[in-house]
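re the bet — no i am not wrong, look at it urself. input seq straight from the record:
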Amino acid sequence: MFRPLFIIAIIIVTSNLYSQTECNLSELYPNIFKISKQIYEGEEYLNVFVISKLDTNTKFGKFINENYLYTDYLYKTFSDYSNYEKLKAINDSNELRNVFLTDLLQDTLFNAMMDKFLARICNKPDFIPDTITINELMNIAVKFFYLPKISEQGNYHIQICVGINGIKNTLKKRRPQVEAFCFSSIFTHGNSGDFNIQKEFRSTVGKLYKLSLGNNLEERLLRAQGAVYMMMRDNDVLKNMLLSEYKKNMNYLPFVIID
C-alpha cells in the first residue's frame, strides 16, 4: 500500500479555460504524478504522489497546483494497486516511471474519475454534473473524522486520512468526487483561522469523555465513533466551511448542491 504524503494547500476558483481537444490525459499524467522507492523502518515501499508545485505554464499546471489534494485523493482511493509488486520489482528509476505511467493510462476506473473531475474545465458537451443535498454532503464529510483506536487508559486516538477513515464501512454508494472535495476541504482548513477544523474535531472528541460509553474498549470505541459522526454532522463550522469551499470552487466541481 502506498503511504500517503499530505501537504496543506489552498483551493481557489478555476474558470473554464480549456477546450475539449486540449484535455489529453496521456499528456497530463507525466506532469502530475511522480513515483519513487523509499525506505521506512527498514522496509522498501513505493511512494506515488501528486506534484504540488507544477510549472504554471504547463497544461493544467495551475489547476493541479490548486487541487492536488483532490487529485491525490482520487488516485490513492480509486486507482488499481494490483501492479504494486510488479512495480516494486523494477530497480531502474526511468523504467519504473515509464511502466507506472503506462499502467496508469490503462487504469479504467481512475481514468474515469479524472475524466469526470476535468469535465467542466474541458467544456465537454455531454457533461452532466451529479447532484447532492447538503445532508448527503455532510454524511460523507463526517466519515473523515475517525477514531482508529482507544488506549488501555481509555484515551481516543484521532485521525483525518485518505486511506484510514469511515468511508468504506459506512457508505454503500460511493461518491468519489464528493469524497475528494470533502477530504481536500477538511485538510486544507485543518488549522486555518476562520475554519479550524482540527480544533472542532478535538473539541468534539473531548465531549466523549463526559459520557459512559461502556466498559469493553472495542464496544466503547464503536459507540464513540458513532457519536463523533453525529456531533460533527451538526457542527456549523464544518458545514459553513464546506459551503464556503463549494461556492469558491463551483465553477469546476463536477457536482451541484441542490438545496
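see?? The first helix runs from residue 25 to 32. told u. also The first strand starts at residue 33 and ends at 40. so pay up
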